[in-house]
Design a protein that fits this description.
Shape: elongated
Number of strands: 32
Largest sheet: 6 strands, antiparallel
Number of helices: 10
Radius of gyration: 41 Å
Strand content: 15-25%
Length: 655
């Protein structure tokens, strides 16, 4: 009996000792990330049948249980992945928001200064200072475009660098998780006997992994776990870890992509396959915002340069020559897939032909075995190159696609019409005398005319630049009152007449008499003239080359008018309006990501608090446990002391 009492006291003493150790372990790890509170579970020891009844044998520790809730842990990890993704996105796009919204560093003031220079030039076309000021403001505008493009490229390079570092961290965590899987499997004896501290370390690594990429965890055999990312790619399976790799884009070496390593091969993952975490946020920012912003900025640059060039070439400079290209316009960026067949002979070129139809999208060209198909990346719209072989370039969204040669099924290319538009912009004219302010034609009428007919100042369109259309001598139009018509138009050119009612009639070349109604506009060989009033019989009107038109500013006025002309997006918006749309997109997206990030952070804090309520260490509770186990320890010690006293009495009876 005394021996049994001693054993009972000893069992309680040992249980209390384990409780004290576990409580102390909780207290000392209260501030360790990922630590889950541990509790001691006790059970009654096996009893003895003494004949007269069952006599207890004390207590024993059945399990040191980790207070872990897998459902709450999954919620925390998901919230962490979302928060980290939005934080990474916001960090990047807020830089662009600050850049574009800056009233001094943005593009708006540079465009305003440039067109102010054009207006001053229009007011004083013969002034040396106004001409030089226009060239200076043009160079400033180009520098601003290039500066913005350079800053966006720096942000893109920074994204590349962060993608590389994130992949390294992800691979490191995967390796550590696999190693812990091995250790945990080796130390797991039963469901109730597990290495709790190692389990905490592994779960914390999974939480840290979700800061970089969203990871899905599935329990495996022998207390191991399987971790997968993206669209189901395994990152850790039991004791084996797989790796991600950073690889240059197959069509753009300057752009880094994430691939999945399988043996000696790297399979590039789609950018939308890796979601969550800072890596997912970076990839989403680059494809969803950075590319669009670069393309939008390039679209404005190319449209402005193209339309300005077209109008400038319709003017006449101080040397009496037709104007040339004012701006240098970069060609679209074309990237061929490195895996295209070596036997293919495809030659692809692209050129912007209609800036009014430009989009901010990239395009993919792929040969499907029968046809070349162009896919607009922004919405997936597909256009088949037809006919092929081509007789003339095929125009898609204002871009002329010229393709020749043969291809192998699967060969593909990426075309970025506006990606380099801002960075590659330049000013071609350096001689101020070559600024084309005047119009190449001049109209007139002799004072001998007796009617009220008046011929407008006239203008030219791009057809005037075609061979043989430029005026080399004076065209004299004579009015015949009987037939109500004009004669004298060049015999080799058709004449198109547009009336005030909007109706248009084209008369073939060689038509001797062209009917006239007041307000008619005549077009022939790229020359546009408008006539008003009622000419008298025999009245004549002249259209001649503009020789010595130093003070003429008609073309300069048209150049200045481009500032407020709706040109982009199918003639619906101005240059400034298109840029403002980009600024608005960036501002709205920045605010959207910021608000979403704050909401996600609040959710993360809420789920973390709920998890800690179950798994975290409460120091007040642990202090109470210390007192409880201390009292149990002291009480069990008293039991053993009594057992010792009884044993001494029994020994004394035998003396």
């Amino acid at each position: 009996m005394t021996s049994n009492l001693l054993s009972i006291g000893k069992s309680g003493l040992l249980a209390a000792q384990v409780g004290l150790s576990t409580t102390g372990h909780n207290i000392t790890n209260a501030n360790v990330d990922g630590y889950n509170r541990q509790v001691v579970l006790q059970q009654t020891a096996q009893f003895n049948n003494a004949g007269y009844g069952f006599v207890g044998n004390g207590t024993e520790v059945s399990q040191i249980k980790r207070q872990y809730d897998s459902f709450m842990a999954t919620q925390v990890n998901n919230a962490q992945a979302t928060t980290s993704s939005l934080d990474a996105y916001y960090t990047q796009i807020s830089q662009i928001d600050n850049l574009l919204a800056d009233s001094t560093a943005g593009l708006s003031p540079a465009m305003a200064d440039f067109f102010k220079g054009v207006q001053d030039f229009s007011s004083n076309p013969s002034s040396v200072s106004s001409r030089q000021a226009l060239l200076s403001s043009a160079n400033s505008l180009v520098t601003r475009f290039q500066g913005l493009a350079g800053r966006l490229q720096e942000i893109g390079d920074g994204v590349n660098s962060q993608i590389t570092s994130n992949v390294k961290v992800i691979n490191s965590y995967a390796k550590q998780i696999a190693e812990l899987n091995i250790s945990i499997a080796g130390l797991t004896v039963s469901e109730s006997n597990q290495p709790n501290d190692l389990l905490d370390q592994r779960d914390q690594l999974v939480t840290e992994l979700n800061k970089y990429v969203k990871a899905t965890v599935q329990p495996g055999p022998n207390n191991m776990i399987t971790v997968s990312i993206g669209s189901g790619q395994p990152l850790v399976v039991a004791d084996k870890n797989f790796e991600l790799a950073v690889t240059p884009s197959q069509t753009d070496p300057s752009r880094l992509e994430v691939g999945y390593v399988m043996g000696s091969n790297v399979t590039v993952l789609a950018e939308n396959a890796l979601t969550g975490g800072s890596l997912g946020g970076l990839l989403e920012f680059r494809s969803g915002s950075l590319d669009r912003i670069q393309n939008s900025l390039g679209k404005v640059a190319i449209a402005l340069a193209s339309t300005f060039n077209e109008q400038h070439k319709l003017g006449q400079d101080l040397n009496g020559q037709m104007g040339g290209d004012f701006f240098k316009i970069p060609d679209p960026v074309i990237g061929a897939d490195v895996h295209n067949s070596a036997s293919a002979t495809t030659v692809l070129s692209a050129k912007v032909s209609d800036p009014t139809k430009l989009t901010a999208s990239d395009y993919a060209l792929k040969y499907d075995g029968t046809n070349y198909v162009v896919t607009r990346q922004s919405d997936g719209a597909r256009t088949t190159i037809n006919p092929y072989p081509q007789t003339v370039p095929q125009t898609i969204d204002g871009v002329d696609f010229s393709i020749s040669g043969t291809a192998v099924e699967g060969d593909n290319y990426v075309i970025r019409p506006t990606a380099n538009g801002a960075a590659g912009l330049g000013v071609l004219i350096t001689d101020r005398n070559k600024l084309a302010a005047g119009a190449p034609i001049v109209t007139g009428a002799p004072v001998a005319n007796t009617g009220s007919g008046k011929l407008g100042a006239g203008s030219v369109d791009k057809a005037y630049l075609a061979p043989g259309n430029a005026l080399t001598g004076t065209v004299t139009l004579t009015y015949d009152k009987v037939s109500g018509s004009l004669s004298g138009f060049p015999a080799g050119q058709a004449v198109t007449v547009k009336g005030l009612d909007g109706n248009t009639t084209t008369y073939p070349a060689g038509t001797a008499n062209i009917p006239y109604k007041e307000g008619d506009n005549f077009n022939f060989g790229g020359i546009n003239v408008n006539m008003t009033g009622a000419p008298a019989q025999g009245d004549t009107f002249t259209i001649a080359p503009n020789t010595g038109g130093v003070g003429d500013s008609r073309n300069a006025a048209l150049l200045a008018g481009l500032q407020t002309k709706n040109i982009l997006d199918g003639g619906k918006t101005t240059f400034q309006g298109s840029y403002a749309e980009t600024v608005s997109f960036v501002g709205n997206k920045t605010r959207e990501v910021q608000v979403s990030g704050l909401a996600s952070l609040a959710l993360l804090q809420q789920t973390s608090t709920q998890q800690q309520a179950v798994s975290g260490v409460n120091l007040d509770e642990e202090a109470a446990n210390l007192l409880r186990y201390q009292q149990a320890y002291q009480a069990c010690g008293k039991v053993m002391q009594i057992a010792s006293t009884l044993f001494d009495v029994v020994i004394g009876l035998g003396r």
